Amino acid sequence: MEGLGLPTRIQILFNTFLKHPETRSHLLLIGPPGSGKTTSAKFLVEAIHGKNAGSSLFGRALFLNSSDERGLEAVRSRVYPFVRSSFQALFPVSDAPKIIVFDEAETLTDQAQIALRPLLDELPKSILIIFLCNSISRIHASIVHKFMVIPFEAPKFHDFKHRMGMITKSEEATSISGLDVEFRRGDIRFFILNPKKYNECTKLWQDVLTCHNSQLNSLFTTTLQKWTYPDLAMFCIYCCKTLGLLTAPSLIEILHITDTDFVKMISIKQRSYLLSKWFQTFVKEKLETWPPPS
Questions:
Q1: pLDDT at residue 207 above 90?
Q2: Strands (DSSP E) along the chain, which ranges?
Q3: Residue range 231-248: average pLDDT?
Q4: Does residue 243 sit in helix, strand or coil?
């Protein structure tokens, strides 16, 4: 498990589950994207059942993406048939429990979550359920206490570089800037999937703080061809906060121009104009000197 670059406390906990099966519990892994939840769940499944645990007719693991299969029907048609299927009598392989992993579990409907309660009421000797989620607030109150909750945190910059190096085995991965790591909340998965965006935020930071005000709208228009509008808005807030300029009026204004219903009614060009105007008003004009002395 050391080669996965996960925090020491997670390694110790999961190794304990493997050495002492009686300590196992249904698990709720919670944390931001890219913090290691999916990697940890896959490690546990493979450590218990092998790498092909979910790929055959006799599979002992079921992986579900709850954002795609989020309703009661998915629980009825996928989960319970998997639970009831048993080839153990004919082909004895292991006393280890079947494992069901729900990725993005917070997107499961309340009905679907409640339908899982009979399985959660049982000790995880025959069925082990693992929820992976970004926020615990949307896990139904009637079942959340059935899980052992394990928090995963966005890695600090030093830990991030260490884990990226271990996972990718690439020196280039260590060149990611601290600004990019902080803005992306240490999302290791994002950087693994987007190796060309290692220093994208750093470049945008430099561009917005060195371009003339008249160029800002054009810069944002170009950026919105690659970034989503909410991401660019969050970057503007990040810049404002990092520079110590974030105020109640600036927050109120950006909440207004990023309101979902409002955004649907305006074009990309208008979105770019509004964000550039916000940035000019609440960031550039608030700096003591502009442009900064060279």
A1: yes
A2: 27-30, 61-65, 98-103, 127-133, 148-151
A3: 95
A4: coil
Rounded distance, CA 277 to CA 150, Å?
42
Please check the confidence at residue 290 and state whether its pLDDT lies above 70: no
What is the distance between the alpha carbons of residues 81 and 94, in angstroms, rounded to a whole number? 19
pLDDT for the residue numbered 1: 60
Torsion angle, alpha carbons of 258, 261, 265, 267, to 10: 30
How far is residue 141 from each of residues 38, 90, 113, 136, 238, measured CA to CA in Å? 23, 39, 10, 10, 33
Domains and CATH numbers, the chain: 2-151 (3.40.50.300), 157-286 (no CATH)
Residue 290: count other Cβ atoms within 10 Å of its Cβ. Answer: 13
Per-residue pLDDT band at 243 (split at 50, 70, 90): very high
Residue with tokens 């390694």: 11
Q: C-alpha angle with apex 99: 141 to 154, nearest 5 degrees?
A: 65
pLDDT of residue 92: 53
**Stretch among 7-16, 101-110, 202-211 having the lowest mean pLDDT:** 7-16
Instruction: Flag whether pLDDT at 187 surpasses 50.
Output: yes
Judge whether 67 and 33 are in contact, CB under 8 Å.
Answer: no
- pTM comes to 0.71
Give the CA distances from residue 152 to residues 2, 133, 277, in Å, rounded to whole numbers and listed in that order: 16, 10, 37
Structure tokens at 144: 């959340």
